């Protein structure tokens, strides 16, 4: 079925359903088809309350304090300064020291913030600006890119997985695959989007490559690792292997997800993004000046304080697997607020789609037995298209112990 068909069918199915659910409350009588058009569209049509479609059960709301996992009230959640990695120091005589900080950030937080990374403020502000202008376009223009095909080169949509989520989250998105064949499919409006987003993609990929090299070195697997099916545990690492690994990352996939979170009339009832971990190896996140990202740290939700022009980098599921659990792919979520909309750009980097990810043999021994099954991109896609992703279920499904 084409994506358009899927939406048309939802519309006719859910007219009577939403009336029944909403009990005649005018604020809530909004048809399913309207939700499918996204939160921005909903807000543009004027709403004063959060429709039921977005209202989380008490236990999942931002301010819930779960008894088993006592997470702080969101409003009282302390801000956190993530460990800061000064990228320019990585290139100099203090590299060994910075690698140690990098390792402990990945072990303790699964997150760090990169400053002095060499991507100019212009490239960054141009990206935020052009993405803002994209979301400012009339709905008819944005909706040209709506698709439920997870492999589409460009995809505009809403919520986390709008075909599966029973409760929607308060975000719209534009997803851009970053391989050269995809670029001609990116939105043609605003007219400078392709140029500015392509520059941004190229620069973040370069930064990613530098960070990956540092991460492999910090794990002590540089020169001693194997990554894919063709290698065996007996292979000795050498510089050819290192080149091969870097080549795989160079050829790997990059997906840019532009998240738009409109201001929300009742932010305590919903979330911009539910708790999730990222599937890939590393994510480089750019956020505007509005805070909203929270990470789970020591069983508490803590808010990440944005640092202008920095990147928030987080360990993805593939890196947790590759590091045999030493580096942590940590749950994070996004709060919305009643005063301001927020934009973020997540650049998700992974190995090529056909690669197998497994724990590095160099990190397995008697004291540290293999903790994860092999995995690949298609098992992840099958997983998310067949269920409502809650928390970090996919990674859980790969665990051996
Ligand atoms: O908007 C943010 O701060 C986080 C976005 C995110 O978690 C994601 O795109 O996976």
Automatic annotation (TrEMBL):
It comes from Xanthoceras sorbifolium. Residues 251-351 form the Fe2OG dioxygenase domain. Residues 19-30 have a biased composition (Basic and acidic residues). Transmembrane segments: none annotated. It comes from the Eukaryota. PROSITE patterns: FE2OG_OXY (PS51471). This is Fe2OG dioxygenase domain-containing protein. Keywords: Iron, Metal-binding, Oxidoreductase. Residues 1-31 are annotated as: Disordered. InterPro entries: DIOX_N, IPNS-like_FE2OG_OXY, IPNS-like_sf, Oxoglu/Fe-dep_dioxygenase_dom, Plant_2OG-oxidoreductases. The keyword rRNA-binding does not apply. The keyword NAD does not apply. Belongs to the iron/ascorbate-dependent oxidoreductase family.
């Amino acid at each position: 079925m084409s994506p358009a068909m899927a939406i048309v069918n939802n519309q006719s199915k859910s007219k009577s359903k939403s009336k029944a659910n909403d009990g005649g409350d005018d604020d809530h009588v909004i048809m399913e088809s309207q939700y499918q058009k996204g939160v921005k569209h909903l807000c543009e049509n004027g709403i004063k309350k959060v429709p039921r479609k977005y209202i989380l059960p008490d236990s999942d709301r931002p301010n819930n304090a779960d008894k088993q996992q006592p997470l702080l009230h969101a409003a009282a959640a302390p801000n956190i300064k993530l460990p800061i990695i000064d990228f320019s120091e990585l290139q100099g005589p203090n590299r060994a020291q910075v690698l140690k900080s990098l390792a402990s950030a990945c072990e303790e937080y699964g997150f760090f913030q990169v400053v002095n990374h060499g991507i100019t403020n212009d490239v960054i502000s141009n990206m935020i600006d052009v993405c803002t202008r994209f979301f400012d376009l009339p709905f008819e223009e944005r909706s040209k890119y709506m698709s439920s095909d997870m492999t589409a080169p460009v995809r505009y949509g809403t919520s986390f997985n709008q075909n599966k989520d029973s409760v929607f989250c308060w975000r719209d998105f534009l997803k851009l695959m970053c391989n050269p064949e995809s670029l001609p499919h990116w939105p043609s409006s605003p007219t400078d989007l392709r140029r500015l987003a392509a520059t941004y993609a190229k620069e973040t990929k370069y930064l990613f490559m530098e960070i990956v090299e540092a991460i492999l070195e910090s794990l002590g697997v540089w020169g001693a690792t194997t990554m894919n099916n063709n290698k065996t545990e007996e292979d000795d690492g050498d510089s050819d292997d290192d080149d091969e690994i870097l080549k795989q990352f160079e050829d790997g996939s990059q997906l840019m997800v532009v998240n738009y979170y409109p201001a929300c009339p009742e932010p305590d009832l919903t979330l911009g993004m539910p708790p999730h971990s990222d599937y890939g190896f590393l994510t480089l996140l750019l956020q505007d000046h509005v805070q909203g990202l929270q990470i789970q740290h020591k069983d508490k939700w803590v808010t990440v304080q944005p640092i202008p022009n920095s990147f928030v980098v987080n360990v993805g599921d593939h890196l947790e697997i590759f590091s045999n659990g030493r580096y942590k792919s940590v749950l994070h979520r996004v709060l919305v607020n009643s005063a301001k909309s927020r934009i973020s750009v997540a650049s998700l980097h992974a190995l090529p789609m056909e690669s197998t990810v497994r724990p590095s043999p160099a990190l397995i021994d008697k004291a540290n037995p293999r903790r994860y099954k092999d995995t690949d991109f298609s098992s992840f896609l099958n997983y998310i298209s067949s269920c409502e992703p809650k928390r970090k279920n996919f990674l859980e499904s790969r665990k051996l112990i």
